[in-house]
Amino acid sequence: MRLTFRDAIASLLVAAIAVPYIGYLVNGEMPFIKDPRGMSATGLVLGAIAFLVLRTGNAADRVGTGENIAAVVAGVLGLAALVFAETAAAEVLLAVFMGSILVVYAFEVVDHAGLVHAHAGARPH
């Protein structure tokens, strides 16, 4: 298992999303985060930075393609949570978005730890 300094930075960024979200769930708001729109925006900005930190220097293999697709799905969910923040679906969209951030993060860390192997041009046997 070989995790890097970038993994540690990304972990801090994901924690900077998770901790306010948990506080938001418990209290209904956090400092600087008063509603689902604020929490969505926080997740989008910090999540995008965390993803860029994690993806920098990664190989362009099938796993990387899967990670990119997962990140795009998370981004779309984040934008949907932001756009529909004033609707009845806001809390559900926000919860799904927060879960998708964790999925992308876990996908990246598992790849960096060397637990998944796939190379460009590799064929399944």
UniProtKB/TrEMBL annotation:
Q: Does the keyword Transmembrane apply?
A: yes
What stretches pass through the bilayer?
Answer: 7-26, 38-57, 69-86, 92-110
**Annotated keywords:** Membrane, Transmembrane, Transmembrane helix
Going by the entry's taxonomy, the superkingdom of the source organism is recorded as Bacteria
Q: Does the keyword Transmembrane helix apply?
A: yes
Q: What is this protein called?
A: Uncharacterized protein
Provide the species name: Pedococcus cremeus
